[in-house]
Amino acid sequence: MRNRQPRQKILLAVLLLLPSAAAYALHWAIFRNAHDIFFYLLMDVAFLFVQAVLATLVFDQLLNAHERQAIRRKLNVAIGVFFSQVGTPLLGLLSAFDGRAEEARKHLRIDGAWTEAHFARMQAVLRSHEPAIEAGRGDLALLKVTLEQQRDFLLRLLENPNLLEHETLTEMLWSVFHLADELAHRPSVASLSDPDLRHLENDIRRAYDWLVREWLRHMQHLKATYPYLFSLAVRTNPFDPTARVEVS
Q: pTM for this structure?
């Protein structure tokens, strides 16, 4: 097979050059003007380098930009589906374990008046927020059941190559899936030892931290791009106890 490839390439090159040679021969037979033949031949050869520059530097960049934009759109669709089906309800469950959840709620009551500056400021606030996760505060059994029900969905998301190219989203999904896996391996969460509860608290803290950050970025994207989706997201805000899905 390896010996055939060079031969095939040589044959292809000959087949491509033959029509060109025939055209030049016909031109000579009709016009008998070697000057024009060599003049235009050199012009074509010179323009090949311009074409190479245009193809590699200009068109390639335009195609890459278009591909990145298409990937970004698919990525945002997948993120939207994740928060609609899993992320937003899960944030409500996980925030119940946070003894400092009220501090986060005061900052995360997002509305239509929020600007880019508001979102940037909240990202900084979240980086300094240290959740106080206590296993006894929330409903571990309900969390276990909820994550078990969404296990297949989480696995499909982890198989999405577009999502895995985004580092922070990958970390968020792995943290959530790891928490689901930890809970799934415990037949019951009713009588866990203190060391085991501390271990689960760390897993909850990790997933909660990544989820809140990505949720805020997602809300910022919706605000800028899809006002109607942003309106629903505001009315289902897991950090706003006054939020109601019905429009009043």
A: 0.70
